[in-house]
Design goal:
- The structure is a single chain.
- It contains three helices and no strands.
- It is mostly helical.
- The protein is globular.
- The protein starts with 6 loop residues before the first helix and ends in a 13-residue tail after the last helix.
Length: 66
């Protein structure tokens, strides 16, 4: 997505849950939009947490509210 976004925003993109913030940034046009539409929010958040804990994602020094 090219910028820093909280886990909630990333979860919404991956689950295909559009909204004003997602549409205004063009994230509904990403190839990953809706990729995990059949997963629950909790599942996707779990994936993000696992990837973060294994240093697959870089977490900024200040966390965004989720």
């Amino acid at each position: 997505m090219g910028q820093r976004f909280g886990a909630g925003h990333v979860t919404n993109v991956l689950r295909g849950q559009g909204g004003e913030q997602i549409a205004s940034r063009g994230h509904d046009q990403l190839s990953t939009f809706g990729l995990l539409k059949d997963a629950t929010s909790a599942e996707v958040r779990g994936y993000i947490e696992q990837l973060t804990s294994h240093a697959c994602f870089a977490r900024p020094m200040t966390d965004f509210p989720c």
